[in-house]
Specification:
Layout: E1 18-26, H1 38-56, E2 58-67, H2 77-88, E3 93-98, H3 99-102, H4 106-119, E4 123-128, E5 132-133, H5 144-173, E6 186-189, E7 192-198, H6 203-214, H7 220-229, H8 235-241, H9 259-266, E8 275-277, E9 280-282, E10 290-292, E11 299-301, H10 311-321, E12 341-343, E13 350-355, E14 358-363, H11 364-368, E15 376-378, H12 379-409, H13 418-446, H14 452-484, H15 492-498, H16 508-514, E16 515-520, E17 526-530, H17 533-548, E18 558-560
Parallel strand pairs: 1-2, 1-3, 3-4, 12-16
Antiparallel strand pairs: 4-5, 6-7, 8-11, 9-10, 13-14, 14-15, 16-17, 17-18
Helix pairs in contact: 6-10, 7-9, 12-17, 13-14
């Protein structure tokens, strides 16, 4: 049986007093239409109220104004206050300029207009688009015209959203900043709001954070503690102190520095001078929940503004953040080797232990499951070994740099890499052989030596192998081109070791700069993989291929002691 809606009683007695709330909303969705300005809405609605109040027993309770709020959802401060006052009985009449002021969400508009206001006996008056009075003409709120106008109001938002998103994406691709607030450490350029200038007050804080983390061996929590002790305002508090209307919905109460804030700063490529935008987006023009976008969908434009952090320091910070680290109790300093030690057999990280006032490192797998053999070493012994290895590597770099400088000063320099030539020759031969085999497959299939399915499977396998070989050849050719350019000693590899030429003790900053990983073998043997392995190999090959071989044998990049 069809459901029959009970007709509204148009002759229902009016309440003794219409306690009226005038609702005004303005947002960017309204474009440049001056009639939607807060001032004009207020003037128009006030005039209507003044002309009808005496004869209809109306009393104005309050104005409810949402300036800068979209109408696609109900998360508006004054609108929520209006709903609260309706629920408490403080308001029983609502006046708006038109239906779009109530909501531009078709579903929500109907929910308020055709359900909530009816249930709560709230009189709803719209002066235009369409003209409504739910007390005098109750059936009109269900008219097709109201439904169509509500749908049109929502569609207007959808079309505006598409146009605005397209404009924003164009600006993002051009490297123009479109956000409301510049990242901490920068300010919007007074001459161009889409460009950054360095904030001389906060940029030193950014540099300190990177220095403490990369060179000082401080943990993120240690950095937080230091900043709070120094009285440095966190980014949110700083923006507010500068008079900016900034609010972080994830922060409750007084904003303070946190490990999360420090982590976001350490990972922000904006400080390299690159514009990075589009890391988040709203689900839709109606659902404003923000979702994180995959990195390949970000808008990244390099060298759009002055860098605060150099690329080398930034890269070290990213490497350190990926390491599994431990912080001593009640200390903001990380252990010297935290995150750098690995078992040479199982590859798991080493655990730090203390026994009889001695610190030692042991294989985590051995300690937890017993599935690995005994790999352990005392801290003092490891520290001595690593220090000696670094000193030996520095001496090697000094000797190697002298050879390279002498080669480059010679009148003729031949730069030929036997390793690269041999690898290239072998892979090109393999590629030719595979191409011939793949071509012969077709003949085998036509001669019925193999089935159609076998032909397709083998053909795909050969094509995959050819693709891998082609990529290898391309990479080797690119490396050959780099190698063909004379290697010089003016590069980060030589600089990194030479700046520690007089090293007599270790700290975490030196370990992080020079070492990639330290492998602990059974019996306490140690293998150290230094950073800059590719640059070291290229320098060795360059020296050996250009007459340095007779001057002595050069050590390998990984030093085993």
């Amino acid at each position: 049986m069809a459901r029959i809606r009970k007709p509204l009683d148009a002759g229902k007695t009016a309440p003794a007093l219409w306690r009226t709330g005038i609702y005004i909303r303005l947002s960017k969705d309204d474009g440049n239409d001056e009639s939607y300005s807060v001032q004009n809405q207020r003037q128009r609605l006030s005039a209507h109220f003044d002309s009808t109040a005496p004869e209809e027993s109306m009393r104005l309770v309050d104005f409810y104004i949402d300036d800068g709020y979209t109408g696609t959802d109900s998360d508006r401060d004054s609108f929520q206050r209006l709903l609260t006052d309706i629920d408490s009985g403080k308001i029983n009449c609502v006046i708006v300029k038109d239906l779009s002021r109530l909501s531009r969400n078709d579903w929500e508009c109907k929910r308020y207009l055709q359900h909530l206001f009816v249930v709560k006996d709230v009189r709803f008056i719209s002066l235009e688009l369409p003209r409504l009075d739910s007390y005098k003409r109750p059936d009109e709120i269900y008219d097709l015209g109201v439904t169509m106008q509500s749908a049109y109001n929502e569609n207007h938002c959808r079309e505006t959203s598409i146009k605005v998103r397209g404009t924003f994406n164009t600006k993002r691709r051009a490297g123009e900043f479109i956000g409301a607030f510049a990242p901490y450490g920068y300010l919007k350029d007074p001459a161009d709001k889409h460009h950054f200038v360095v904030d001389e007050e906060t940029a030193p804080v950014i540099r300190d954070i990177f220095h403490w983390f990369v060179c000082g061996g401080m943990s993120k929590n240690g950095i937080v503690k230091r900043l709070i002790e120094l009285g440095v305002l966190c980014p949110s508090a700083y923006k507010r102190a500068q008079g900016m209307n900034y609010h972080n919905p994830q922060t409750k109460g007084e904003p303070l520095w946190s490990a999360r804030t420090v982590s976001e700063i350490l990972g922000n490529r904006m400080y390299l001078g690159h514009m990075v935008q589009g890391r988040q987006k709203v689900k839709s023009y109606k659902i404003h929940t923000r979702v994180t976008m995959p990195e390949q969908d970000w808008f990244v434009v390099e060298d759009t503004h002055e860098a605060i952090i150099d690329a080398e320091t930034f890269a070290k910070a990213q490497s350190l953040m990926l390491r599994d680290t431990r912080t001593p109790p009640d200390s903001g300093q990380l252990y010297t080797f935290s995150g750098f030690l690995r078992c040479a057999d199982c590859g798991k990280s080493m655990c730090r232990r203390t026994a009889k006032n001695l610190v030692y490192y042991a294989c985590r797998t051995k300690l937890t499951t017993g599935l690995c053999t005994r790999h352990s070493i005392r801290h003092d012994k490891l520290e001595s070994i690593v220090l000696q290895a670094i000193q030996a590597q520095i001496a090697l770099v000094d000797g190697l740099s002298e050879l390279i400088d002498a080669i480059n000063d010679a009148p003729v320099t031949r730069t030929v890499s036997k390793r690269l030539n041999t690898s290239l020759k072998q892979r090109r031969q393999d590629l030719e052989r595979l191409s011939a085999l793949r071509t012969g497959l077709y003949v085998d299939w036509k001669n019925s030596d193999i089935t159609r399915d076998e032909y397709r499977r083998m053909k795909q396998e050969f094509e995959d192998k050819e693709g891998r070989l082609a990529r290898d050849i391309s990479a080797l050719e690119e490396e050959s081109q780099v190698f063909a350019q004379s290697v010089t000693t003016a590069n980060p590899y030589f600089d990194a070791f030479r700046r520690h030429r007089n090293i007599t003790s270790l700290n975490r900053g030196i370990v992080a700069e020079l070492i990639n990983v330290i492998h602990i073998h059974e019996g306490g043997d140690v293998t150290i993989d230094f950073n800059f392995a590719d640059q070291h190999r290229r320098a060795l090959e360059f020296a050996e291929c250009n007459g340095a071989a007779e001057r002595g044998t050069l050590a390998e990049a990984a030093v085993a002691i």
